[in-house]
């Protein structure tokens, strides 16, 4: 059985990767490498310059333990920037100086013969729960005005918003597209209640209020 992409990154890529030195985290304004062997940078979750990253590690951790304390994976950081799963794998492997793993054999996955050479992006093993969290967090970063409206209407502070890690659900189609890019099937998304379809027309997605056409 071939190694999963998650294990490949953990065992092969991350141990050779300095995500700051190679520019993957430039948008978080990292410091120079400290005497302690880590970089200080903006927290991807709360935005405060109190997060830290160690070379060869897979996460950026916030030091504001009582107000944030988030541990954000490099994968989620790159996904939030708009990269597809295949692009994330390629970028991490390139910066780590390791080969990009082969895509899975599509015939073994029940695809018609002759499609093994498809250029479809290699997608990692990820749970539906993790996938919907990743998608709605990415949509929150893409649509900050929606969370700002909620914050103002409910009177939440910046710290409270950071702790809640609220995601954004825009449209069923946009959410489904995001889930499918992470390897989650339409059927799984329906079964988990992430999207709902018209009972009389299963090809039609219902809006987020689960009733409007």
From TrEMBL:
This is DNA primase.
């Amino acid at each position: 059985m071939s190694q999963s992409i998650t294990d490949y990154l953990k065992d092969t890529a991350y141990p050779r990767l300095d995500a700051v030195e190679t520019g993957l985290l430039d948008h978080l304004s990292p410091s120079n490498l400290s005497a302690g062997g880590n970089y200080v940078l903006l927290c991807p979750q709360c935005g405060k310059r109190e997060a830290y990253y160690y070379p060869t590690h897979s996460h950026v951790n916030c030091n504001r333990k009582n107000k944030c304390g988030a541990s954000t994976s490099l994968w989620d950081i790159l996904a939030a920037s708009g990269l597809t799963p295949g692009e994330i794998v390629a970028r991490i492997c390139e910066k780590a100086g390791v080969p990009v793993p082969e895509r899975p054999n599509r015939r073994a996955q029940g695809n018609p013969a002759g499609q093994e050479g498809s250029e479809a992006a290699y997608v990692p093993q990820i749970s539906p729960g993790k996938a919907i969290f990743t998608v709605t967090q990415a949509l929150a970063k893409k649509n900050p005005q929606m969370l700002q409206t909620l914050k103002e209407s409910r009177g939440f502070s910046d710290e409270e918003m950071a702790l809640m890690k609220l995601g954004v659900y825009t449209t069923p189609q946009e959410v489904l597209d995001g889930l499918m890019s992470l390897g989650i099937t339409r059927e799984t998304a329906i079964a988990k209640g992430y999207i709902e379809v018209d009972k009389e027309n299963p090809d039609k997605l219902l809006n987020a209020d689960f009733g409007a056409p």
